Amino acid sequence: MEDYKKILAISGKPGLHKLVGQMKNGIVAESITDGKRFPVYMSENTSSLEDISIYTEDGEFPLKDIFRKMHKDLAGKPSDISLKDSKALTTFFKKIVPKYDVDRVYTSDIKKVIKWYNYLLEAKMIILEEKKTSKKGDDKKTDASKKTATKKTSSKKAAPKKH
């Protein structure tokens, strides 16, 4: 199962892509539909699915939560809603995100969300559960051990030779 931080929407490139590597001046991405790899330069507009939200009347609703609700509503199957039927699209989306902001979320945005859901489902990349986070006490222990490790490595540096 992938992390939505590593799944990218790249402006000008259809579909979704996986982050697979780094370069000096960008990243290497791989299409989740056909597996083709290509460079993505820093000048290209790239968004992680983790960072995308839909506007609602109450604020923003994360895309990952929309995918979970769609998965539940569609019983784990792909959406078969016609992308040409804007009334069906808005009716379906209203069911998934009842308070979405109709003035700021366009039919083209809804189409994109549905397409992305279908791509992720086909690639078996839908994440249904949140990753469990560690307890606060565990974080403190980890931070303390990192500091100790840093001190140990810094004390092992050799002194410069004097001639």
Your description of this structure?
The protein has 163 residues and is an alpha+beta fold. It is built from four helices and seven strands, in the order E-E-E-E-E-E-E-H-H-H-H. The protein has helices at 63-73, 86-96, 107-122, 136-155, and strands at residues 7-10, 17-23, 26-31, 37-41, 46-48, 53-56, 59-62. The longest helix has 20 residues, at 136-155. The radius of gyration is 22 Å and the shape is globular. The model is unreliable at 137-163 (pLDDT under 50).
* Strand residues, percent: 15-25%
Structural class: alpha+beta
The largest sheet is:
5 strands, antiparallel
Give me the Rg, rounded.
22 Å
What is the overall pLDDT average? 84
Shape: globular
Overall number of strands: 7
Low-confidence runs of at least 5 consecutive residues: 137-163
**In which range does the helix fraction lie?**
25-40%
End-to-end C-alpha gap: 58 Å
Order of helical and strand elements: EEEEEEEHHHH
* Widest β-sheet, arrangement of strands: 4-3-2-1-5
Report the total helices: 4
Short description:
This protein has 163 residues and is an alpha+beta fold. It is built from four helices and seven strands, in the order βββββββαααα. It is globular.
Keyword list:
163 residues; disordered C terminus; alpha+beta; 5-stranded antiparallel beta sheet; 4 helices; single chain; two-stranded antiparallel ribbon
What topology emerges from the helices and strands here?
Layout: E1 7-10, E2 17-23, E3 26-31, E4 37-41, E5 46-48, E6 53-56, E7 59-62, H1 63-73, H2 86-96, H3 107-122, H4 136-155
Antiparallel strand pairs: 1-2, 1-5, 2-3, 3-4, 6-7
